[in-house]
Design a protein that fits this description.
2 copies of one chain form a homodimer. Chain A has 268 residues and is of the alpha/beta class. Helices cover 37% and strands 22% of the residues of chain A. In chain A, helix 2 crosses helix 3, helix 5 packs across helix 6 and helix 6 packs parallel to helix 7. The first copy, chain A, binds a DNA duplex (30 and 30 nucleotides) through helix 3. Chains A, B: It comes from Dyella mobilis.
DNA sequence: CATAAACGTGCACAAACGTGCAAATCGGCA
DNA sequence: TGCCGATTTGCACGTTTGTGCACGTTTATG
């Protein structure tokens, strides 16, 4: 028996590990209470509060009296997120657009990175774009020269697009050449993951409706794992990463048969 | 066993969480009663009143004797009056928004006038908005405080929204309190008309899915007739016209049982 | 006008909080 | 092995926040 046993229990875990587990609890239950966490992890409330402070500082939770809740950022400023890393996303988008051939039908998920891709698509190349995000649809309508098909359904404000059953049903009746599911987390061994249950189901439907899948991921998504699995890595043909992406990480995906495309460096 | 109880219950919740749930109840039921809340959350009425006071201070509810209601549907706040949009459409929109009651479900067609209406809607009044226009959906998502349902389908660039068979099918499965079909032309004797075949079919479906219909028309639409009929005038309950609309024209609609609402004069 | 319910305010108390500090643990490095 | 710095942790301190109660006032209703 290994003496440094895998932490099946919640007692005696490393500080960082504890924070991850707190985050997992928060994501699954929607809230955490400081006193309860102190009891579960067998540490003082002070340590729990320190953890919550750090998580809140990274924007991963919202501190409230008595514990923490899911950040309001999850359900608020989508408008803000659009202007987060413009240059990095543009560099990624330019690389991703290189995979698109004239006349193809694309399935584009909601998300800021995907909006950058839509903005970088060449107009007048006979492209058909199917999307569940009103923002992306509007962007393409304004640019003209695209055939746009909108996926309807109830819209999640935090996601910025339709992801419910109705949306999945519509995608099932479609067929695309290429799809761009927004990545929440992608790992060479464990595949593609999402933070939300319905969102992940929708991404899976997208992938199943497309011949090829392109995952475009900023650095923070690489090697991360979220709560809900979207697909095995075998379903992903292309991965577009930033210039700054670790060489070893890129190799890890390559050996699984994924074509890794590296974006140009950004001046910043 | 259930020592660290998940928030399935309404008892033993964090203060801030409780406020969120009160707000959720308010949005779904349109009103909350202080005594009932005190019982449900197992706190004193004093705490409930404090919660309601804070929510009211943030403009999220309206305090009344015995509890709270959704904030009144007020006209557009000053800041929106300063946008660069045409003043005439804003005046129309402000008048149209006066017909909306808290908690209602609205069906809003594509079009610039309707976009002005969406921009003038009060946030946080528990309104559900169904629209076929990505632009309007995006606008409401950015403003927050709305439930948004998107009608999908192939998008016509000239119309700015989905109007095909698929869109009509989705509308048929819905039910709304109020609908705002964009008017191409409206005539007291011949009813509501549109320029495009599919667009007109979609507008008709909207009207059939709604309890009441509000037509908002700029002066140039009044007394005009287009190619495709959308509906008889009997299906239209409200007509919002500009301040400058002819008195005789307004009377012509009134005698057909249509409630005519005249917008305020614009300074221009 | 009478009455009960709902309300606001001030107050006391406990729980939760932040901060500073000392003890404990761990990983390098001579 | 022994020392040093960094990190983590628990404790003590004073402070803030939420809560319920008592009291007097306002509001709705018959």
């Amino acid at each position: 028996m290994v003496k440094s046993a895998p932490p099946a229990d919640d007692r005696n875990v490393l500080p960082e590990e504890r924070q991850q587990r707190i985050l997992a609890r928060l994501r699954s239950e929607g809230r955490v209470v400081a006193v309860e966490l102190a009891e579960v992890f067998e540490v003082s409330e002070d340590s729990i509060r320190r953890d919550l402070r750090e998580l809140a500082a990274r924007g991963l939770c919202k501190r409230v009296y008595g514990g923490a809740l899911l950040p309001a950022v999850t359900l608020t400023p989508l408008k803000q997120r659009r202007t987060e890393h413009p240059l990095r996303k543009q560099a990624l988008a330019r690389q991703a657009v290189g995979l698109v051939k004239p006349g193809q039908t694309l399935l584009i998920d909601a998300g800021t990175t995907n909006a950058a891709i839509a903005a970088a698509l060449p107009a007048g190349s006979g492209l058909s774009v199917i999307t569940n995000a009103p923002h992306i649809a509007q962007l393409l309508l304004d640019r003209e020269g695209f055939e746009v098909l909108l996926i309807g359904g109830r819209i999640s404000a935090s996601i910025g697009g339709a992801v419910g059953t109705q949306a999945v049903e519509q995608v099932r009746r479609l067929r695309a050449d290429l799809c761009f599911p927004g990545a929440c987390a992608i790992d060479a061994a464990r595949g593609l993951w999402g933070f939300d249950s319905e969102e992940s189901l929708f991404k899976r439907a997208m992938i199943e409706a497309s011949d090829e899948t392109v995952v475009v991921a900023t650095d923070d998504k690489l090697g991360a794992v979220a709560t809900y699995q979207v697909a095995e890595l075998a379903r992903v043909q292309h991965l577009v990463v930033e210039h700054s992406a670790d060489r070893a990480t890129r190799a890890a995906f390559s050996v699984h048969g994924v074509l890794v495309h590296r974006a140009d460096a950004v001046p910043g």
